[in-house]
Amino acid sequence: MSVRPKKHLGQHFLKDESVCQRIAEAVAEDLHVQKVLEIGPGMGALTKYLLQNDAFETHVVELDAESVEYLNINYPELKGRIYQRDFLKEDLSSLYKEPFAVVGNFPYNISSQILFKVLDHKNQIPVVVGMFQKEVAVRVAEKPGTKKYGIISVLLQAWYDIEYLFTVNEHVFDPPPKVKSGVIRLKRNNVTKLACDEKLFIRVVKTSFNQRRKTLRNSLKSIINELKPGLDTTLPLFDRRPETLSVEEFIELTQRLSV
Fold it and tell me: If you compute the radius of gyration of the chain from its CA atoms, what whole number of angstroms results?
């Protein structure tokens, strides 16, 4: 007898098969890896469609024991490829030696953490297709010039080309969330190394947006005083606010602040 897993970790299970199929198709499109790791499969609504594609091998990582039991019973073809672990704590370099894609209907409360984990393994994860709370999905894919453009936009877009695919309404989930969802696809770009110090780049981006109402001259004052107290901040670049800068301009800014 199958066991229906409990809701966990803020998860809302997908029940609309057409949405699951579209996500699976988005993963398969122009995919050049042999393995796909689904995060938080729950009852396997999306897993079902991933398994239909023989071009790659589907693996799943699921923390909830009841969900794992359900998957073992209902998807025997996943035998040996179900990891009952916490993705955020997993050593992905040990789990896979080769590149792999990541997919999932990500729990809202850890979705940003999942993306930062992906970023830490950017050279091993060339493709991500994920469903997020729509606000997060839009923020990740947003271009410069709006209030939604922020830290996660810049850091991910430095390494990935990001496409907002489609919006998903509340009623396709069990239980229905209070907000809409959005599906995005991240594809690793050709950047192998930033043209600046990467740690300083991250620091500059975070510091800039932590005081996003200020001009860069003011928000970055502490970094300027620490690293380059004699820097000419009369340049037009320092008159701007962080949401107006592209990734390339943040790289230029970091170069100017480098010792």
Answer: 20
Among 234, 253, 227, smallest CA distance to 242 is for 253
144: its two tokens? 């410069």
CA dist 188 and 169 (Å) reads 28
State the DSSP H helix or E strand holding residue 135, giving kind and residue range, or none if neither: helix 134-141
Task: Take residue 76 and report the two structure tokens written for it.
Answer: 């025997």
Q: pLDDT tens digits for 101-128?
A: 999 999 889 999 999 999 999 999 999 9
Q: Which domain holds residue 227?
A: 198-257
CB distance 152 to 115 below 8 Å: yes
Query: 125-155 pLDDT, tens per residue?
Result: 999 999 999 999 999 999 999 999 999 999 9
CA distance 183 to 19: 10
Domain assignment of residue 4, yes or no = no
Burial of 92 (0-12, 13-18, 19+ CB in 10 A): middle
The number of folded domains in the chain is 2
The CATH code of the domain that includes 244 is 1.10.8.100
Say yes or no: 122 and 155 in one domain: yes
The stretch 67-85 carries a mean pLDDT of 96
| 147 and 59 fall within a common domain | yes
